[in-house]
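A quick aside before the break. I want you to see a complete sequence-to-structure record at least once, exactly as it would be stored in a machine-readable document. Don't worry about memorizing anything.
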Amino acid sequence: MIRIYADSTNDLTPELWERYNIRVIPLYVNMGDKTYIDWQNISPDELYAWSDEHNTTPVTAAFSLGDAESALREAIDKGEDVIFFGISSGLSASCNTFRIAAENLDYSDHVAVIDSRNLCTGIGLLILKAAEKIEAGETDLRRLEDYVNHFIPYVRTTSVIETLTYIHRGGRCSAATALIGSYLKIKPKILVKDGGLGVAKKYRGKQPDVIRKYYEDIEPLLKQADPDHVFISHTGRLPQEIIDEIADRVRALGHFKNVHVTRAGSVVTIHCGPGTLGVFYVASDPNAGW
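That is the input. The structure line, written in tokens, reads:
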């Protein structure tokens, strides 16, 4: 039997974790002298309140080697093979930590570590590919590993950010850039490519209008995407009407079997800030959608 493990940045819903028996290992969020566990005892809205009060950004941390070994022992006790999905190794140590845990427990032959080179529900799309393959009867770990790795260059993760404040607080842009961006109402389209973050386009205007422009830009790509799953993921503090509108427009395409609307967990929330919305899908071509 193959069991799926993942760090908590995959941002799938608890219902999907339960549906596919996914073992989630949470990352940590440090706020001042207190440490919280992603998805367990801290909410994104609490992060916003603390960040605004202290004019700084909480710090995230990967799970510990001890956490990884403890989780992996559960699989060892049951004789399960494990395929682990982690946030891009360019952004976190999760994948390397889990790999070391497997080595320490002499279980590497039964573990496949997938460096998603992605984040949020971009990781979730890969997890669902694996979950459905397992459900269809796949029992060979290395064959499953190759199958999932094939899809990594096809996953498209983009989003539009409402405010540069949180990116600035996290040290990812200068104070001057954040100030100018705020003054000009610049809303960047963030793209995950080759395991890192970049700016693909800059919009201007109120966030609901920007989100509509962003969706219009990607709609032709969605019509050609893998039809199994698409995610509309957001970080809160958006009018529910615009979230529903984008979800309805995606559904109206009549292309996707499953349209998921999710709210991102603490780790993505910390770095993107409120008002962010993205559409995540698997492209039909590894060179399309950049």
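Two observations worth writing down. The chain has two domains: 2-152, 154-282. Confidence is low (pLDDT under 50) at residues 170-184. We'll return to this after the break.
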